[in-house]
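worker-03 picked up job from queue 'complexes'. Input manifest follows; two sequence lines, order preserved.
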Amino acid sequence: MTTHISEELLSDLADGELGSEHRASALAHVEACPQCRRELEAIRSIKADLAALPKEQAPARDLWPGIRGRLEASARSKVDLRAAEVIPVGTRRRLVPLAVAAGLVLVAGASILFSQRTAHRATPERAHRGETHALEIAPGEKEYGRALEELRRDFDQRRSELRPETVEVVEQNLRLIDQAIVRTREALATDPGSPDLTLLLSSAYEMEIELLRQANDIAQEHQEAI
Amino acid sequence: MGTVAARTSADKSDAEQFASVYAAHVGRIHALCLRLTGARDHAEELTQEVFVRAFERRHSFREESTFFTWLHRLAVNVVLEDRRKANRRELRVMIAEDLEAHDRDASSRPAHLGLDLEKAIAQLPEGARTVLILHDVEGYQHDEIASLLDIAIGTSKAQLFRARKLLREVLE
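worker-03 finished. Artifact:
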């Protein structure tokens, strides 16, 4: 008995992944070969140990308050977008969604603090296309850029599910947030590593991600409702 | 505005009811996230994300599978999506503090299981570790793993074989 069964085959045998013919011949070999039998038993033993690991492990802290907070915030901001879906065109402009307001705060804040800076200006359109993320100026920008590109692609595919007025509101918000991103990046270029600016920048990215995610969710809901 | 107000109220009511869903499943989902990430804080973040997504997508649940199966797959996808987007592999270091969490239930397990095995799992390469956890701990089949990870069934089998071999080497 010099030719042993490969470890891969023994692993498949332990998992029941072999066909009946292979299984029968493998089992016959194992029966006669102490080395392969030991190997099979070792695989079965580790499988049993893994299967016996506890399936439940409560987190060290209660996560529900944080989850509830996010659900409530999400419900509130969805109402802003939905309001744009139901309010007559004539009155829609009076509605300023949260994201717009927050975006304006960021733009204004960055402008006031750094309006005299003369760093290279990226256009909002470039920021929108993710081109500003090519050169990472703050930690995590590439990841934000990738997430935004993906969400933006989804949004472009689903925009037909939304009313044109809603798409306009979303686009308007995106432009404002992009402006905040561009200006904050400019400020960071002249004051690298500033924790305040880095925080402002990541907040703007998070806002844009959340806005696109919610717009996509609403579009998906509309699609499912059809 | 009545429609919007009604929707807000419905969402709030749904969120309150969702607390019981959280309570029923948080242990399983957190355990999965903890093993797949190997970092307690990150696992908690992802667990939150899973339940937020589950709530937002609750209307897409079809009763072709159990709710837990749907939720579990959603959790796996959230972890995998996070890996792709955040490229946080370098943060996957299971520090001693994280391991203490695994040790809490040690009294209910055989002595040779538990911390050593969890530590050994945490040391595995990410791809092998993911397949091992999904197959040997969570009970997924290779075709399901292949579909979730977007890999070939043969790759899933090879990763499992590699993971078990490495695991035995670490434990020996």
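worker-03 released lock.
DSSP finds eight helices and no strands in chain B.
Chain B touches chain A through 60 residues (CB under 8 Å).
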